[in-house]
Amino acid sequence: MKYTWPLSVSSFDLWDKLQVAWFILSSDRYTMGENVTKLENELVTRISGVYDSPIYCLLTSSGSTAISLLFESWRQLNPDFYKRTVVIGPSVTWSTSIGIPILAGFRVRLCDINRHDFSFNYHKLEKIVKNEKSKGNHVILWPTSLLGYQPSKFQLESLARQYNCNLWMDCAENQGGVDSSGHSILSSYDNTITSMYFSHFIQGLELGAFFTKDKRMYEMALCVRNHGMTRHLDNNSALKKKFLQQNKTIDPNFLFAYLGNNYRPIELSALFARLDKKRWFEYTETRIKLFKLFYGLLNKELFYKTSDINEPHVPFALPLFAKSEDIYNKAKLICKENNVETRAFVGSNLLRQPAFRHLGDYRSFPVSELIHKQAFYIGLYSKLKEEQVIKLAGQLNKL
Fold first, then answer.
1. Helix (H, G, I), strand (E, B) or coil at 209
2. How far is CA 127 from CA 88, 112, 124, 153, in A?
3. How far apart are CA 329 and CA 324, in angstroms?
4. 30-48 as b/e: b if 16+ CB within 10 A
5. What is the DSSP letter of 264?
6. Tens-place pLDDT, residues 170-193
7. What is the pLDDT of residues 10-55, one digit of tens each?
8. SS3 label, residue 319
9. What is the pTM of this model?
10. Domains of the chain
């Protein structure tokens, strides 16, 4: 079905496509070339400047492989520590955000979310953390910036400090946002990932990025991203020198220091993302403007009011959280009648999903249950027209 208001549309015009075509005609290197390196440097430049410590960026083939790179690298860097580590994630998020840590061998616990910023129920989160710490476990807090909404950094950092937790962030659906101090969300936590999938803020077809402030973590991830080889480490790297010194009988171009995988991106994805990144400020402005317009018109008697997204927080979509299942069903029907594509809140209550039922009883996650039954989202992008937003809000308000 062809929607007049789909979840997303291509950001690329004819000039973009001509530049990509010229690259294909004029280049013979299509993976891990200059566009990958340039985009990594450009992203670091964009999110840096507010910290004394450097920030490192590694592009990956997708947002999901960026998560894999993060957890697999940390596990190998902390081989004993990770055995008593528990990852706490939200019960409403994308499946790979929770599934990948499980596949990497981590124990995972889920926490119900709140209906204001769609992150953890912070009171319940502290109870889970206290319980795990009482057992002698180390905790990684692993929140999601769901649909572009941002968790309370203050509450998360307070918990992390009080209970000596790691604090990472899944920013797959949020590249443009900043925290309350004006720092890019991508540099506001020790380790973050994001996605530049076709329908996301910056489009890179399939493309992800991993950010860290830890040089040891960065060097480990460089190896893990490329089959575990040390080849891409800087020649001045002490880690590379150590492995070369200890393994003189091995070809240095094929020295496998760690267990790894192929998470490397291709040049085309990086080039598309670089072209799209030039429109960063336009996208930010348009998304915020349309978000404010829609929710300024929407009847709060019919739909839950979530946290306001004000500049420079950048919404990913327009969520509709109905106050009853009847309103939810009627709102979905109105969208269908207006040829507006809808989508559930990614996995909604993950505890209902077959792959995650072993993590708990879905009925113990009341807000996730509400979202599962009464919430969906519609697309938000720069080519969306104000008239479309006004018309749909008006029809929804007649419910």
1. strand
2. 12, 12, 5, 18
3. 9
4. eebbebbeebbebbbebbb
5. P
6. 999 988 888 777 788 888 899 999
7. 989 999 999 999 999 998 888 888 999 999 999 998 888 655 578 9
8. strand
9. 0.93
10. 14-276 (3.40.640.10), 279-396 (3.90.1150.10)
